[in-house]
From TrEMBL, chain A:
The gene is Polr3c. GO terms for biological process: DNA-templated transcription. This is DNA-directed RNA polymerase III subunit RPC3. GO terms for molecular function: single-stranded DNA binding. Belongs to the eukaryotic RPC3/POLR3C RNA polymerase subunit family.
From TrEMBL, chain B:
It comes from the Eukaryota. The lineage of its organism: Eukaryota, Metazoa, Chordata, Craniata, Vertebrata. The gene is Polr3g. Belongs to the eukaryotic RPC7 RNA polymerase subunit family. GO terms for cellular component: RNA polymerase III complex. This is DNA-directed RNA polymerase III subunit RPC7.
Length: 497, 223
């Protein structure tokens, strides 16, 4: 028995590795003595939670065509440009009315736009060293890419139109069908960009999300105009500043004025007032770095991300423990170190309540105690105990909780689906039957009869299941938003210039 | 010990006031058991965000999940062979696309290896494992299988023929090696049905099952 299992698993392992490597979830490296080592990219795996956000963002920026390009790249790990264009053209053709097709050229154009703005990038290529003929070939290829090639689109002349699938080839419900004949291999034609693969550039999306978060924070805190100014500044810095820089290059007020969106009619003086307001704000998103050019301003990403992370902490405390607790938290954060008595006095909260709240936050590690001994023997009676907030460690703790939440959400969703497996399968079969009956022309009475195969209480059960699964899925997506903010902050603290 | 204020009486070594409560004040009861799994919360969670973008992303997420299940990347679990072969099983197949990886980008060891058909399954000599380079072309694979058919014993070549045509064959023989081979055939078949040339016809490998298929020779070195 065990022998068989062992044998099967080995083959499965190799296949699984192929799939994981294809999807950039596992990297490999050749070590001395010809051993190939594989490394799991755990962080990259967790990015799968964010796929819907990546795809939706592309839809907002580049329309349906862009959306499908990024979706195909994410679903397949990596693809050649020609393959993507063909696939997306086919998919888009499916959605348009009969007779119309999607031209390859249009899809290509969108692809080039995505490459130019760096939302898609080239994968490292197989590197064949000069002296490859001597000696045995290595156990695994080495993959390299030049910085300047990463967004270089190959010169292709992709001519063609998307093809509509002739009949209902694929039945989503898995209706019983005879085994399909294999599709003729298209790869008989030479692939013009063979070996040049593309993948989605997640870092670029993260930069976009970060900018989005900053703009919306400014809109919430101040007003629409300030957020538009912020957006203009961020757009100007997109190309001049690397994604992990702590702050942007200085931008002069004159430049900012020129790059405001066309519809925005504010005078130069008003702009200057807004810039001053932004620079003076205690949040310190914007700083003034000089006076030339009407005033030089920078965006301080480190401070911005820290503010966003702290706001998240405060929000969590407020929703879990109440607003008075949140007030104490903000107080300790502001004053850095406070004694028990001082907290009571500053917060104007009675001692008993204040104690209770402080201990609650302490036990959940939002707040920590700092010991300051007065004497070298650290005697407790002669030691100060101060409450303090260590932002980085509190954020790490919260991030840990977020991941636990996601894991719980996934577990629960799988449990719910499993519990109702029989009912779900039945519902799918009924849907398939309805679809096929409708295709061959059916009367209302027939359809009704089929629909009644699912009883009313069963329908109710299905509705409840759908509602619950939707809620769990939506929660996953929203927890991931928090995860993104917290991780961005943590990352910004580890990279110091 | 003698220096204590009084034997057995609790004495704090620091000023209690500093930590926030005075002597004799009623403290909360000691905790006798782990906290409840789902404690009551004073504050209910904030409702989820709703809106066009949230709805769209939710639909996307669920669609992606379904789509992924139908992709060739989704490796199905290998089921134990059922007691009775169900005729209907042949027809309930969801069509899956094929995927042939660009082998140039992968380490050699994860590539499919040709099965060395041995005339006598029981005698496992040290593996003269053929290397993979010739297998990159599907046409070559077919040729090799034809060669093996001629070389191998009749029963096995029959099995291979049937396998290539993609129909189920009957399990024959009940000694271990035959079982193992039949298991292989079944596995490849399921593979073929599932993935349609995903890893070229003969994705199975022989070389590394040290001792795995010779349970008779217990004196072979095992890891």
């Amino acid at each position: 028995m065990t022998q068989q299992h062992h044998w099967i698993r080995y083959v499965q392992v190799k296949k699984a590795l192929c799939v994981l490597i294809q999807h950039n979830l596992v990297l490999y490296q050749v070590h001395k003595r010809g051993v190939v080592e594989y490394e799991a990219q755990c962080n990259r795996v967790l990015r799968m939670l964010r796929y819907p956000r990546y795809i939706y963002t592309t839809k907002a920026l580049y329309g349906d065509t862009g959306e499908l390009i990024v979706e195909e790249l994410l679903l397949n790990g990596k693809m050649t440009m020609s393959a993507v264009v063909k696939k997306v053209a086919d998919r888009l053709t499916e959605t348009v009315e009969d007779g119309k097709t999607m031209d390859y050229a249009e899809v290509s154009n969108t692809f080039v736009q995505l490459a130019d703005t760096r939302f898609v990038q080239r994968c490292p290529m197989v590197h064949i060293p000069e002296n490859s003929d001597t000696g045995p070939s290595p156990p695994a290829p080495s993959l390299v890419i030049n910085e300047k090639d990463m967004y270089l689109v190959p010169k292709l002349s992709l001519i063609g139109k998307g093809k509509r699938r002739r009949s209902s080839d694929e039945d989503a419900a898995g209706e019983p069908k005879a085994k399909r004949p294999k599709r003729p291999m298209d790869s008989k034609e030479p692939i013009p960009d063979d070996g040049i693969y593309w993948q989605a550039n997640l870092d670029r999306f993260h930069q976009h999300f970060r900018d989005q978060a900053i703009v919306s924070a400014v809109a919430n805190r101040m007003d629409q105009t300030s957020s538009e100014i912020m957006r203009a500044m961020l757009r100007m810095s997109e190309v001049t500043t690397s994604s992990d820089a702590p702050f942007t290059q200085p931008l002069s007020s004159n430049e900012i004025f020129r790059s405001l969106p066309v519809g925005y009619n504010i005078s130069k003086q008003v702009l200057d007032q807004y810039l001053t307001l932004l620079a003076d704000d205690p949040l310190e998103f914007v700083g003034k770095s000089g006076d030339s050019g009407g005033g030089m301003y920078i965006i301080n990403f480190c401070k911005a991300l820290a503010s966003l992370a702290i706001a998240t902490l405060e929000s969590v405390i407020q929703e879990r423990f109440g607003s008075r607790c949140a007030r104490i938290f903000r107080l300790v954060l502001q004053k850095k170190h406070l004694e028990q008595k001082q907290v009571e006095d500053f917060a104007m909260i009675p001692a008993k309540e204040a104690k209770d709240m402080l201990y609650k936050m302490l036990s959940e590690n939002f707040i920590s105690l700092q010991e300051i001994p007065k004497t070298p023997d650290h005697a407790p009676s002669r030691t100060f105990y101060l409450y303090t907030v260590n932002v980085l460690s509190a954020v790490r703790m919260l991030l840990h909780r977020c991941y636990k939440s996601v894991s719980n959400l996934i577990e629960r969703r799988q449990f719910e689906t499993k519990e109702n497996k029989r009912l779900l399968e039945k519902s799918q079969r009924v849907e398939a039957i309805i679809a096929s009956v409708q295709a061959t022309g059916a009367e209302e009475a027939q359809l009704q009869e089929i629909e009644e195969m699912i009883t009313a209480p069963e329908r109710q059960q299905l509705e409840t299941l759908k509602r619950n699964v939707n809620k769990l899925d939506a929660s996953e997506i929203q927890v991931d938003e928090t995860i993104f903010l917290l991780e961005s902050y943590i990352e910004s603290t580890t990279k110091r210039q | 010990m003698a220096g204590n204020k009084g034997r057995g009486r609790a004495a704090y070594t620091f000023n209690i006031e500093a930590v926030g409560f005075s002597k004799g004040e009623k403290l909360p009861d000691g905790v006798l058991k782990p906290p409840p799994l789902f404690p009551d919360t004073d504050y209910k969670p904030v409702p989820l965000k709703t809106g066009e973008s949230e709805d769209y992303m939710l639909a996307l997420k669920q669609e992606l999940r379904e789509t992924m299940k139908r992709k060739p990347y989704f490796i199905e679990k290998v089921e134990e062979k059922p007691d009775i072969e169900r005729y209907s099983k042949k027809y309930i197949q969801v069509y899956k696309e094929e995927w042939i990886p660009d082998w140039r980008r992968f380490p050699r060891e994860v590539m499919p290896r040709k099965k060395c058909r041995k005339a006598d399954p029981k005698s496992k000599s040290t593996k003269g494992t053929d290397r993979v380079s010739s297998l990159l072309n599907a046409a070559d694979v077919l040729k090799k299988i034809e060669e093996l058919e001629k070389r191998g014993d009749g029963e096995k070549s029959d099995e291979e023929n049937e396998e290539k045509e993609g129909s189920k064959e009957n399990k024959e023989g009940d000694n271990d090696s035959d079982d193992a081979n039949a298991e292989q055939e079944d596995y490849d078949e399921e593979e073929e049905q599932e993935e349609e040339n995903d890893y070229i016809n003969s994705y199975f490998e022989d070389g590394d099952d040290f001792g795995a298929d010779s349970d008779d020779n217990m004196d072979e070195a095992t890891y």
